[in-house]
Amino acid sequence: MNFKKEKTSIILAGLLIGVISTALVFFGNPANMGFCIACFLRDTAGALGLHSAAAVQYIRPEIIGLVLGSFLMAMGRKEFASRGGSSPLTRFALSFFVMIGCLMFLGCPFRMILRLAGGDLNALLGLGGFICGILAGVFFLNRGYSLRRTYRLPLLEGGLFQVLQLAMLLLLAAAPAFLHFTEADAGPGAKHAAIWISLAAGLAVGALAQRTRLCMVGGIRDMVLFRESKLLLGFIAILVSALACNLLLSAFTQGSYFVPGLAGQPVSHTDGLWNFLGMLLAGFGCVLLGGCPLRQLVLAGEGNSDSAVTVIGLMAGAAFAHNFGLASSADGPTANGKAAVIIGIAAVAIIACLNTFQKKEN
């Protein structure tokens, strides 16, 4: 694929993903949350009993679809490969703190864009923090930061995560008594599109993201490092498309799909400092991991066990955040959450230093 066609493909994929994201809200997902990897992994963790926050417990089919869509596309393009072994525990720790940052802000980079498309101006401060976090990560990349090489692994290592997603789908369909689901109208976990709609949306977005290598972190990182805009254009396309769809739905339905402002935004708070710092932590950690949460799910679908460990780390971070009162709410951040974000920024900086300057000394 030549460079011009590649850019066109990424923009078209972004436009389509924006439409799909808005459609999911229309069909029942929470407002400004057509997709949110952090929120959906948190909901799934709750459904499995890993945390007890009753308002956010539901196995999200979008996550299952993202992984399986990526897997199917990778198989079709002969790009599936079992690989891993690159500092798995370090990746687990980084992803744990990325989730702490996301739940301070109440959204991943993907949802940050969708919140902007819905008029939530709080996301602008999140975007500012996210960019600053990426710049911090780029500082270390320029000085040789690395988590070492990956290795070819047995097929089972690359395929086990997809099998787990199929098991999740079976659990969701069967709904055994040991699962936990948010009761109707009791919180964001109760708001969701029909299973088949959510699954189809996830499959489509997973396939598109695998085909185009879409990554919010990669887009900003590549723009800073190489003045390369193609990945960033994909997320700009998502913003434009989702904004246009929200405006159209607001005009032709009774729903409030676009409501510009700061106060009263859905699943959001107005504490600008902690929105900024939460996404700074998320951006910093994601650069060191090599991609945003969406990209990690796609890579896991392609057979990358390091990314599978990263996703597990994100779920562990979500469970910890809700079990120990670290996650924000519409009322704002908690004292525990603020302390956790500061600790997270320090921990991620230490990991960056140890994998940059110590490596040089050796």
How much of the sequence lies in strands comes to under 5%
Counted beta strands: 2
What's the overall average pLDDT, rounded?
Answer: 95
Q: Please tell me what the overall shape is.
A: globular
Explain the layout of strands and helices:
Layout: H1 3-26, H2 37-47, H3 61-76, E1 83-84, H4 88-105, H5 109-117, H6 122-141, E2 151-152, H7 155-174, H8 195-212, H9 216-226, H10 230-252, H11 272-289, H12 293-301, H13 305-323, H14 335-354, H15 357-361
Antiparallel strand pairs: 1-2
Description:
This protein has 362 residues and is an all-alpha fold. It has helices spanning 3-26, 37-47, 61-76, 88-105, 109-117, 122-141, 155-174, 195-212, 216-226, 230-252, 272-289, 293-301, 305-323, 335-354, 357-361, and strands at residues 83-84, 151-152. It has a two-stranded antiparallel sheet with strand order 1-2. α1 (3-26) packs parallel to α10. The longest helix is centred in the first third of the chain and has 24 residues, at 3-26. It is globular, with a radius of gyration of 19 Å.
Label this structure with key terms.
362 residues; mainly alpha; two-stranded antiparallel ribbon; 15 helices; 2 strands; globular
Question: Could you provide a short overview of the structure?
Answer:
The protein is mainly α and 362 residues long. The protein is 67% helix and 1% strand.
